[in-house]
Amino acid sequence: MRNRFIKLILLGIACVVLLMYVSLTSGLFEMTQLEVIRTLFGLDHEADHRLVIFEFRMPRIVIGALVGCALGIVGSVLQGVTKNQLADPGILGIQSAVGLAVVCYMFFIQGNVVGMSGLSLAGMSVWGWIGGVLAAFFLFLFSKKHGELDPKRLILVGIALNSGFGALTLFVSLKMNPRDFEMATVWLSGSIYSASWEQVVSMIPWFLLVVPLLFWKASTLNLMQLDEVSIVGLGLRANLYRLLLLLGAVGLISSSVIVSGSISFVGLIAPHIARRLVGIHHQYILPMSGIVGMLLVVLGDWIGRTIFAPAELAVGIVISIIGVPYFIYLLMRSSRSVQPQR
């Protein structure tokens, strides 16, 4: 399995690089392949070319890759912690909670939100993380049955929280002035069209802090798939690790939602594809989910800005069009698997 994993990871990275290059050469501003390559290597000193490549297209592609990687990894962690393969940051309401917290931040400082400055991003990060932690707290509080997480109740509570936070977000956004409302609406749809290098930099600390922690605890996630009696028998402090992994996952979700809005279903689809490719061990699932997440978001963004050109469709909408049928399929398969045999 290790050799298969290494081959698939290398193949996935090659696909990501190829897709990023295709995305880099696509757009309304026409450039030849040679001009793109010369600009990338600093051989083309045309100001327009450098502006398009380095200020518009590259930050957008890099943000797409980072967000996809974060959502893919977080989806795997949430599915591992909850032992529910339908768990996803969007379905469980965590993304909505982060969105509500950030919209509240925009509302309370409306008139001072000018683009995505470093100070705004730092403020949004703090508010977003608090919102995500609050959602996770409610999720675990209302999903327990006899002291254990109930997977079915978890999904129902998540859907309820998602709806509740979504309604509150709409209510707060309607109270905004027209300029902030427009900004919040575009952002909430899951768009990365206004990506900047400041946003890329804002995600780096979360990646450096959280991703190594999640990878380090991959073997613990494997043990968490056992029943509670076996976990207690092994002496594993499951609740402590659940809390630790959840806090890390919320941090990573917050950093991605702040720069891209709510992009749903990546955290649901990526782990499922990863499990089919590399098996059930989280040492392999986590990195593979990150690669698959990258592919999904970069591809979704490329489709959204090329297929419907000159109009643009937000990447969140493109992925939702793909994700909703997939979610229904998983839900039906899950229902069949729990039906008693006659």
Give your account of this protein's structure.
This protein is mostly helical and 342 residues long. Helix content is 76%, strand content 1%. The protein is built from 14 helices and 2 strands; from the N terminus they run H-H-H-H-H-E-E-H-H-H-H-H-H-H-H-H. The chain has helices at residues 2-24, 33-40, 47-82, 94-108, 118-143, 151-174, 178-188, 197-216, 218-223, 228-233, 238-260, 266-278, 282-306, 315-338, and strands at residues 144-145, 148-149. The protein has a two-stranded antiparallel ribbon. Strand 1 (144-145) and strand 2 form a beta hairpin. Helix 1 (2-24) packs parallel to helix 13 and helix 13 (282-306) crosses helix 14. The longest helix has 36 residues, at 47-82. The radius of gyration is 20 Å and the shape is globular. The two termini are 37 Å apart. The relative contact order is 0.17. The model has no long low-confidence stretch (mean pLDDT 81).
Keywords:
mainly alpha, two-stranded antiparallel sheet, 14 helices, 342 residues
| Count of helical stretches | 14
Number of strands: 2
| Global geometry | globular
Helix and strand element order: HHHHHEEHHHHHHHHH
Strand content: under 5%
Spatially, the strands of the biggest sheet line up as 1-2
The helix fraction, in percent, is over 70%
Largest sheet: 2 strands, antiparallel
Q: Rg, please? A: 20 Å
Low-confidence stretches: none
Sheet/helix structural class: mainly alpha
Q: Look at the structure and give the mean pLDDT.
A: 81
| Gap between N and C termini | 37 Å
